[in-house]
Amino acid sequence: MISDRIRRSVRSELHSSRLAQVGLALVVVIVLMATLAPFIVPHHPEAQQVGTGDTEDRTNLPPIGFSTEHIQTTPDGQTEIVREGSLEHPMGTNTRGQDVFSRFVYGARVSLLVGLLGAGIATVLGVPYGLAAGYFGGRTDDALMRGADVMLAFPSLVLAIALVGVFRDSGFHTTGLPDPFVYAARHDILGWVIPRSDHVASMPSSVTFPVTVTLVVALVNWVWFARVARGEAISIRQQEYVKAAKSIGASHLTILRQHVLPNSLTPIIVLATIQVAAIILLESALSYLGFSGTTLTWGQDIARGQSDQRSQWWIATMPGLGIVFAVIGVNLIGDWLRDALDPSIEGEGGV
Amino acid sequence: MSDEELLRIEGLCTRFFTENGQVNAVENLDLTIDEGEVMGIVGESGSGKSVTALSLIDLVESPGRITDGRIWFRAPDIADELIESGADDEVTDGDFVDLRKLSEEQRRSLRGSRFSTIFQDPMSSFNPSITVGEQIAEAVEVQRRARANPRSLDAKAQRYGLGDYVLSTVLPSKKYVTGASRDRAVELLELVGIPDPVERADEYPHEYSGGMLQRAMIAQALAGEPEVLVADEPTTALDVTIQAQILDLLSKLQAETGMTILLITHNLGVIARMCDRVGVMYAGEIVERGTLEDVFDHPVHPYTRGLLGSVPDLEGAGGRLQPIPGNVPSLLDHEMPDRCYFADRCPKAMDECLEHPPAFDVEGSEYHTTKCYLATTEYTEEKALPDGYFDEAGRAADVGEEPSETETGIGTGTDSETETETEADSVQSDGGEPR
Amino acid sequence: MTANSSEPPSRTEATTRADDSPLVSVQNLEKYFFENDSLLDRLLGSDPVAVRAVDGVSFDVYRGETLGLVGESGCGKSTTGETLLRLQEPTGGRVEFDGRNIYDLGRSKLNAFRRDAQVVFQDPFSSLDPRMTVGSIVTQPLEIHDVGTKADREDRARDLLERVGLSADQLDRYPHEFSGGQRQRIGIARALALEPEFLVLDEPTSALDVSVQAQVLNLLDDLQDEFDLTYLLISHDLSVIRHVCDRVAVMYLGELAEVGPVETLFEDPKHPYTRALLESVPRASTDERDRDRETLSGDVPSPRDPPSGCRFRTRCPQVIPPADVEDELEQSTYRQIMNLRERIEAREITLEEVGVEGSGRSENDAGEATLAVGEDGLDESEIPAFVETMKDRLLADELPAGHDEIVTDALAELARRNWDGAADRLREEYESVCERVDPALEESGDARESGYRRRHPVACHLYGVGADPTSETQIPSPSSNADAE
Questions:
Q1: Smaller CB count within 10 Å for chain C: N or C?
Q2: pTM of the model
């Protein structure tokens, strides 16, 4: 399906475009970070150290290389407390003493999962829909696309909030995805492969995955896939090889599968990449507003850190940077694919 | 037709620098065009005929470049002016000036007033959102302003900046196009045989049929009363009945204005109908040229013969067609062997043909020349290259057949625009500079 | 290329082999496309506009022959080809293949038909899926019809590739690795994979260079002999048609103008359109410059709103005037009056600014007033000036006295803004049989009984036997017109 020509063009574009390299590096780092989270993080992302009981108060520590001073009033009078960032909490801690870096790393998991799955579901919904509309044309197209237009007419955030409102009390709202590394470490499976297995075993055993939010972002975004797929199908429908396939008696399904789908893949791949970024943003917005149902996401952390923005700027800034880097990285990859694939389509289609 | 030379092209080379390598679209081309004649260039797609036209009017676009050669154009006024300003022999030669040595601005000022072009696809040559009359009036206006300026080479009068544009949209009195130019546009439309020119001038390009638009494009080309009209496949996109109308129109205009026409086409019938002299192009060079009779009735080059033999005859069914075997060759520099480029398809390839032939004069006619050893040497069986000689050589160099068309980006169609665009795209997809 | 036959294959031989029942019989085929037919348009209540791409076309294709379908772009020839293969559903009419109406076929019968009738397309670039290898392109038909095993199919594909002049080891290459002519050969190989009886060749060589075109035409000729194929060759190129076909059908604006054996049709064309078409083609010979020819004026009318009666009448150099007019007016003068009337009917004449000085050709714009016809028309006193101006502008020739009067009357009506009155006045006097009655495609004279190979029907009133019984028009002899050329 992927010809040498495409492969060559993708490679040479990567070779010559600095931006594509940056994008790829960003995304690789984020993906590795999300996948290998239990090995990377120094602390359990949810562990609080507020100074009650036998734990030390480690709230509001600044990131490494920064220090804060504030006056604490105690019965003995006022003391000035200077807190220095330490290697133990490279990005500092939040108001509950949770390690910001650990949350940052774990937050990437949710964002990426929702982004990829959301875009995947949107593709699976939108592409066949759009291909069918474009390929059959006429009345079918009219009916299908007017339906899709109705979906577009809803403001996506409002639609998302409404759907979340419906599902948030059902058990369906979130689900725990077990972390295979932690499971392996705890049950001593392949213990010898897993470094620092005690540390890993102490990490959260599952990731709370926001099912509703994923479905919502897919529902909000599938129409774009349908529209792009339809446009492609319309132009491919008029190609003579489709007529030729009809004349040899190929069924509509065969034509769609053998000719229309493969030839419309390129713009869909480009769109899907860019949509991953859009979905990461939408997910952040939803969890910022408190709709996601998980507590360990970038958006949620921004919301929490927001009120202390002035004194503890790092709490909201770090997850914010995470969103920025993820979105920029994915978008750069989208641009790279677009630049690499589009001209080669023309080359292949033969001007 | 006066027998005075108007254009003399010497050793013109135009190359395209693509990611696949250097493409020699036009290779060492010599050509003279007399004043008032219709000169035809005929060739198949990928022969470089359109690039020749583009080179002449200085419209070769990146990654293409004219790398060598001179284009002498007879323009005594410009020559005088240049000599006054101290130009040397490199730039002028008597009444002739070398277009390639002129400055960008000077060259631009010649477009429209001395040279005009009509292209194959009139639909894409007009702006769909402006009326046809307005667009022709604009062309008239450009020329009128240029002429109003006594120093013809100073193109400043033609300049139309952003400020002027903004002003013209706000103040009607500052409009670029004047009423006089509009009247002239209507006259031009009438001249090219558009019925109801007054009404049609106010219509948009999509309201015109293909033939009408081609007429309108001719009207636009005539706006500056050019001395040379370069017609690049002017009738290829048209039906035969419309083609006949357009050819008649061109003949009529040529007779009336005495302008010189360089007609580029792949259609031998069109050449026969229109041209006084013909050049046959193959693989970037003119392989045979002469008067129409020389080339059509006494062709020497086997390619010319093959081309003529490939056309089915309308007058009689005849027997089997005599096609030229094989495909149009690749123009990639590293794949162009140092031999006659046609030898691998030639039925009369001989030992001599392994060396690239110079242009030979053919006896019996003053103007008839050909780049083929057959002009001087008799073909004999002994000298013939063995069958399959080039197959083996070719297979050794590159396994299988050359996908000459898409790979080089040259010659996917007769439309020169597509060619250059493809070139540009393929380079962009590489993202780097032409290597 | 193909070393199969050194001698030119005799066409008559091929046709004598055939029996006399047609393989494909197209009867009154119609295909309209509808514009403004979307959901929104229907909601807004706008009526769909019919584009009559094919409007009642009938012809037969006999076994073993090559029928050429020739016409200019937009005349409906490609739509005819696609509709008769049922790649598009027709609006009306029937197509019988081997005696069976293909539009009534059920699923399995239709599948069988698909095996027997194939098509080769014009564009060698868009007719092959860029993402499939040549092997899968050529084996696709076999796969769809479930022929043989995978290995069988690949063997067959190798054979086919060699048969069309490519090498069998190119099976796993992609189309972009081939040149235009080679791609067209791949397209032919795909069409031949199911061993069809009938091939529609839709402009198979128009995208190719002449030298390559000749290769492909020779190949098609060889294949026809080898596989007993019947061809319908659709082309705009008359010399290709002449070279390849046994019989020719000439199409104009969705209708057939003339059908006949290739020699007769090219040497003695009857329909004025066929004649004009043949004259328009520039010959590749040195005599071409001095060849006199009469070119058609004007453009092909839009198929959205085709002319009444004979479709060709708006461009025809031989429109039949009413009997009383015929002797008095030259054809060109008559044509001018017809054009004037057409423009009045279409209300295309600008009345707001009628320059008295005339056509704009004259340079003296020294303050001469222009006439503007207002809502209520011109003042009576200004009418003569208006009429003169209009005559100057719209008619090149002086009219004989009687006709001058009629035209003056009509233009005076126009000055009163009475468009219909002006048109009626002209129609009364000058309406031609060509615009009232659409001529049927009919055999003239005694040839009607001869075999299909010699039949030469024409859709033109010049030859129409009783085309319009109410008309007293004396039909001018076609030969006198032919001599005039």
A1: C
A2: 0.80
